[in-house]
Write a structure and sequence with these properties.
Layout (H helix, E strand, L loop, with lengths): L2 H13 L2 H8 L3 H15 L4 E2 L6 E2 L1 H27 L6 E6 L4 H15 L4 E6 L2 H9 L5 E6 L6 E15 L21 E2 L6 H9 L18 H9 L4 E5 H5 L3 H4 L2 E3 L5 E10 L5 H14 L10 E2 L6
Length: 312
């Protein structure tokens, strides 16, 4: 058994395809298949059911892969220890970010962070909270930027900023004449929501004190984009809620349709999440400083009611 063989096994589990796994590992498919076959012969077990489409691990394979991830994670930690002992880090820094944050934050932080660590290769992965959490546990990410608190076991959370929710309201909407909107005035039946799986959707439902069964709108929509919701509002389909940083990206005309929500204003806590004992803590701390310096200072204090990103 070698570290390389374990990397091949984990890659096949990640991609559920020998060809894609081989491409990811930078080897030919025959080479990857031969090494996995060799490992299976050595142990006398089958790790993957090749008759399934897509390929899936066997019962024993699942247990082996779980242990392989632990071995690989610890081997990577040894490399990190060596880099840290040299007073520098020149490897990859793998950062996850949820889709409701990335369009409004990444362009603010990438250049400043690269100026601090020009030898570090930042690799960003955009995905839902559930996927990012799984990737952290599988050591496929070093840190994730998402809505907190999540209170995941074995994870550390570090709050970054508190982002207010704002309403985007069509001029013909019943609330468009108000200078601000009360929480009690929000009607889930005319609030356009992001699709299932987005924590921002969960926060809005928690704000409106409704669950999915309580939604009875005249429009069914599956979208992960605030831009799509905004375009629909422009066509007269109700209203929607957007985060503050998204509003800063709007043109002056669109900003005229924005209405604040009255005190105590609802906010989402945006934070960093990473495995407890993460050795790249110096990079995580640097990332935190860069992020906090890139957002309005008013968002650094907890001024409002933090909405849970979890579905109730």
């Amino acid at each position: 058994m070698t570290i390389t063989q374990l990397e091949y096994v984990v890659a096949v589990d990640d991609f559920r395809h020998f060809g894609k796994a081989a491409s990811h590992c930078g080897v030919s498919q025959p080479t990857l298949s031969m090494q996995i076959n060799k490992l299976e012969e050595e142990w006398g077990v089958r790790l993957f059911d090749r008759t399934q489409k897509p390929i899936s691990p066997t019962k024993t394979g699942k247990q082996v892969i779980e242990q392989a991830r632990i071995v690989l994670r610890e081997s990577h930690r040894m490399a990190d220890v060596i880099e840290l002992s040299k007073g520098a880090f020149q490897g990859q820094f793998r950062i996850g970010v949820i889709p409701t944050i990335s369009p409004y934050l990444l362009h603010r932080i990438i250049a400043p962070f690269q100026r601090l660590y020009p030898e570090v290769k930042c690799v960003f992965q955009e995905a839902t909270t559930e996927t990012l959490t799984r990737m952290l546990r599988e050591d496929r990410l070093d840190v994730a930027i998402l809505a907190t608190p999540l209170d995941e076991s074995g994870m550390d959370e570090d709050p970054l900023y508190y982002e207010p929710f704002l309403a985007y309201v069509h001029p013909n909407h019943r609330l468009s004449k108000d200078a601000f909107i009360l929480n009690s005035e929000l009607n889930i039946e005319d609030v356009l929501l992001l699709s299932e799986g987005h924590c921002f959707r969960n926060s809005v439902l928690n704000l409106c004190q409704h669950d999915d069964e309580g939604i009875n709108t005249h429009l069914s929509l599956e979208s992960g984009s605030f831009e799509t919701l905004i375009r629909l509002v422009k066509q007269g389909f109700g209203m929607t809620l957007v985060p503050h940083l998204a509003v800063t990206e709007m043109n002056d005309q669109d900003k005229k349709w924005i209405r604040p929500i009255a005190e105590p204003r609802p906010v989402r806590e945006v934070g960093l999440m990473y495995l407890h004992g993460q050795l790249k803590s110096h990079l995580i701390k640097a990332l935190k400083r860069v992020i906090q310096s890139s957002v309005p200072e008013s968002m650094l204090s907890k001024d409002g009611i933090v909405l849970s990103p979890k579905k109730k």
